[in-house]
Design goal:
24-stranded antiparallel sheet; two-stranded antiparallel ribbon; 1% helix
Amino acid sequence: SSFEIGGDLKYGLTSTLTLDLTANTDFSQVEVDEAQVNLTRFPLFLAEQREFFLENSGSFTFGDVIERGVRMGTRLSDFTLFHSRRIGLENGQPIPIMGGGRVSGGIGSFEVGLLNMQTGTSNDSPGENFTVARVRREVGARADMGLLVTQRMSTGDGPSEWNRAIGFDANARPFGGLILNAYLAGTAESETTGAPADDGSAWAGRLSAAWRDQLWDVSAQVRSIGDDFDPGVGFVRRRNITQYYATVGTHHTPALPLTQEINPYVEVDHIADLEGRLLTRRQAVGANWDFSDGSRLMASAKTRMEQLDSPFLVQGEGVIAAGEYDFSEWSVGYTSSTGRPLSLGLNLTGGGYFSGDRRSRTVTARWQPSPYLALNANAGFNRIELPGTAPFNSNVFGGRVKAALNTALFASAYVQYLELTDELVSNIRFNWIHAPLSDLFLVLTERRTLGDDGIRSDRLITLKATRLLSF
């Protein structure tokens, strides 16, 4: 048995600048990640859920940001120079955080953020120190520019290893509906981690432009990511690429009953390696139909070309061999209004999948009979058929319940079943706010693997108490 105590300090340095300190940081009350089905050859992006890193996280945003209502072909899940999940987590498993601090807010016309965190040793891995510094300044009323610097450094007894990154970004709305975004970022590593030669492959850049008005929705971008570009505190989905993307669409309100807006569009995505060899080509045509009651109907059809230089394994079941593949796919989805007590969603996807075929269905339901109770359910069905391999399914089922007995006592439960791995994940949490901003958590987390050889499980029961002392 063990007993641990930690603490956090929040102090207002000025009316616009806040200091946050943390020691022996604990995130045992955070809900477990939702499992995702990955049918690509690239890593998945998992969102941050820990409160300390979520607070003022917008001050540190850098990467493939998107403007609301504008299609850009990329998003932060494709590239972000700072992804806080790289701190205190390794392959989804927690690493002890010894402590750290953050200063964030405004100083005059500047928005600033400074973060420093220290982790302890875990599974023979040395402790590490993480530093992130961000500054952004408004330029006039319709533009801003900024700088982000990150460093990840080992602090153990062995040889010192470090990774550093620096990035410049700028955003502008010079007139009308014109939106401009750009960034340039580079990385460097210590020699012990195999730092590459300075051949320009450790850089990434992007330039994008979009026009959005009452009728037109037009955007284009070009971005390039080097093969050796590796931000140690960031996330990069795909390297060694130059991407060209363009889309044209309209959004207008026709004289049709129950219709708020129709948004037809076409888009083209072209990805090549740094030598100019085509790797991915995607052409799509689609439309979104927004109804006056808040519901939406979506449909699209795509043609794709994928060049694979090496084979990859799909969900541990089927192998996609190296080669060039041309195939088509389609998607249809509908979501009802979330403003009603009962809302439903359905998405169907089908067509080719490299050398085979794919059929996917996603069903979601949400019922909120009162402000004190909400129930959510989701089911994802994926069937893959590949030549020379028996068809296999990769299905995920989940459910969530949130209840508020009063303004101080809350409960939530989340259960998910992964059919391919025959795994059941449960997370049940009770939260009692016993004083202002002071909590008592009781959390049960269990991961069960079901199989022919019986049930294997990992179970964790956590009791956590926090108390706010204001001065």
